[in-house]
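Dear Dr. H.,

I hope your travels went smoothly. While you were away I took the liberty of generating a structure for the chain from your last submission, since the lab meeting agenda had it listed for discussion. I wanted you to have the full record in hand beforehand rather than looking at slides cold. The sequence, exactly as received, is reproduced here:
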Amino acid sequence: MPLRDLAIIAGAQRVEHYEMSAYGTARTIAEKLDLDDAVELLQQTEDEEKEADSKLTQVAMTLYESTEEEEGGKEAENEEEMVGASRSSRGSSAKPATRKASR
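The corresponding predicted structure, in token form, is as follows:
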């Protein structure tokens, strides 16, 4: 169910982006108020959120690539089946259908 997982990751990243924005805004306010301890903690938290977002992106890319590989393998199998069916129909003794010229 990679597509379902990708949808879940997209929702989690949306949350991470809101959190990064909120912590960045709070950090900026703390800077304006000269609250150095708060600035440091908020920056650490914002950095953690950015790291979480980055990890989610890595997982999503891995899932996306595995989905593409699965689809590529299925397409190759379908092509092989079609070629095999085409070859077996050529070996039959049935005459090919002919089209009448339209007048």
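Two observations you may find useful: The chain has one domain: 2-80. The helical segments are 2-32, 36-90.

With kind regards,
E. W.
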